[in-house]
Fold:
Amino acid sequence: MMCQEVDYEVNKRLDNGDPVTLAIGKLLDRILTFRLLQKGDPVNTDDREREIREVYGAWDWDAKPEGPGEWENIPRPDIATFSTKLEDIAQGHLEKIRYYIFLSIIFRDVQVCQLI
Structure:
């Protein structure tokens, strides 16, 4: 699903105000995945390990005994161009979350609960 057509459709739906119905945890997971893809980082570590094994296995160690050097990530800012819109939506959801803490205080066998 990494193509301009999908990006266009998702952008269009977000611009039209279509609601994002993912739970906040799933939305944050997707945002993280999009960020990793945009940075060129692997999303699936098994694929990354296989790729590294292939490069090191095919390396001509006699010609270049120092090895392939640092592993390069190729940034892909063209992937998931809608991710900043999703980040804004997620930020709005996070700001609405309120945590309530109940303090239980005991005074001489009388329990008092206070909502903070």
User: Anything to note?
Assistant: The mean pLDDT is 82. Residues 4-67+74-115 form one domain. The first helix runs from residue 4 to 15.
